[in-house]
Amino acid sequence: MRKNSLLSGSATYLVSNILNAAVPLALLPILTRYLTREQYGEVAMFQALLAVLGAVTGLSATGAAGRKYYDADLSQEELKFFIGSCFQILLVSGILVFVVLAAFQGSLSQWIGLHSRWILPAFATAAASFAIQIRMGQWQVSKNALSYALLQVMQSVTNALLSLILVVFFLQAESGRIWAQVVTSLVFACIALLSLHKDKLLGFAWRPRHLEEALKFGLPLIPHTLGVLVLSLFDRFMINTELGLAEVGIYMVAVQLASAMGLLFDAINKAFVPWLFEHLKRDQLDEKQKIVRLTYCYFLIALLVAGMAFLVGPFAVRLIAGDRYAAAGEAIGWLALGQAFVGMYLMVTNYIFYSKKTGLLALVTASSGLLNMVALLLLINHFGLVGAAMASALAMAARFLLTWWVAQKSHPMPWLSLNALA
Fold first, then answer.
1. Global pTM value
2. Phi, psi of 171 (to 5 degrees)
3. Which of 69, 123, 187, 258 could bond 335 through an S-S bridge, CB–CB 3.0 to 4.6 Å?
4. Burial class of residue 144 (count of CB atoms within 10 Å of its CB; 0-12, 13-18, 19+)
5. Dist. CA 17–CA 38, nearest whole Å
6. What is the per-residue pLDDT across 358-403, written as a single tens digit (0 to 9) for each?
7. How many other CB atoms are found less than 10 A from the CB of residue 160?
8. 130, 107, 105, 129: which is closest to 119 by C-alpha?
9. In angstroms, how far is CA 52 from the centroid of its own chain?
10. DSSP string of 106-143?
11. DSSP 325
12. 133 vs 54, 84, 152, 319, CA distance in Å?
């Protein structure tokens, strides 16, 4: 295994993601007993806002920093200043986002059902997450899976311990859970910045061509990222509007349990990306056919795992979260199916990032997001929480298929080759 970068990397990321998933899952039975469904719903809305702010704060420059690593003849010095340029983009975009939030936090609070006191802490957490993503992204592309895993697990454990102290011992309810996320992100952002400086990956200078390159990569991804958020988060806003904050809390229990699948797929993909890019760079037909075979096997396994979730999901919800959240069990199978399509999507979207042709992704996610919104409007009224989960699965399937088509246009692969299928 040590000799195979894909297997060893996957093993490290898998162990890390299992630990990372186990910590919040271990918290779940405690939080669902110390928080009312409405309070759990408010935590869910904070996390939804955090995801939206993360998409616009930094303008997706984290992806540009990761892709830059694979440029031919790239020196350490140039990479250092390129990453510094990404932080300059964070500074400018962050100021603009802060001004907008400060001006409209009252209206935003009323619209999303989250107390206004959490709006600016969510922004600070999103900005901190940018630094953490840059640090972890550089470890990923350089195949330093162990450092990546250590930081990921340490952050998750710190978040969990602080949540326990504030929620259980100081009885701070949803405030304790939210403040734990905010403080943990700020602390680990500082650690990430110090680590980047120690590894000589953080330099600041005025490099317009670096800013232009990072923006050319990141800006086309903004509509794509926002579309992903519509796919991932709009159901929470719709449930809050149509069914109430308590139903959001129930739904989020199902989402959190189903997300364990997503963490598994994410672990595989994190190890797969460096291995894939290296093989694509060699441009050998037999290697591409091998990649296609592995990908098809992965698709089949993902769908089989989702099928099992329909059977065991309701029992798992009652066991972990308790009877108050039993209704979440009815939605978990559909959410798991959606996670399977997310895992399949990750496998094909890599070709688009490799080719740097990210513009069409916005069209894909916009189309899928629109489908999600329409399906939610139709299905929530008829099926409640289950309808929201069904709409999510349908939209994720559409995004996967459309992305696969775009990936083939961006970087052709022998998907229909008999040699690849044999």
1. 0.72
2. 50, 45
3. 258
4. middle
5. 29
6. 777 778 888 888 899 899 999 998 899 999 999 999 999 999 999 9
7. 18
8. 105
9. 11
10. HHHHHHHT--GGGHHHHHHHHHHHHHHHHHHHHHHHTT
11. G
12. 11, 14, 10, 34
The burial of 304, by beta-carbon neighbours within 10 Å (0-12 exposed, 13-18 middle, 19 or more buried), is given as: exposed
Contact 406, 352 (CB under 8 A): yes
pLDDT tens digits for 81-127?
A: 999 999 999 999 999 999 999 999 888 888 787 889 999 999 999 99
Query: In whole angstroms, what is the distance from residue 161 CA to residue 384 CA?
Result: 34
**Distance from C-alpha of 40 to C-alpha of 253, rounded to nearest angstrom:** 9
Q: Are 350 and 292 in contact (CB under 8 A)?
A: no
- 8 A C-beta contact, residue 361 and residue 406: yes
Q: Percent of the chain at pLDDT above 90?
A: 41
Distance CA 242, CA 249 (A): 14
Query: Encoding tokens for residue 124?
Result: 């600070």
351 and 378 Cβ atoms separated by less than 8 Å? no
For residue 1, give Cα distances in angstroms to 7, 8, 278.
6, 5, 18
**What letter would DSSP give residue 327?**
G
* Polymer length in residues for the chain: 422
- Both tokens assigned to 129: 């997450």
pLDDT band at residue 223, thresholds of 50, 70 and 90?
confident
Place of tokens 């083939």: 408
SS3 content of the chain, % helix, strand, coil (to 5): 85, 0, 15
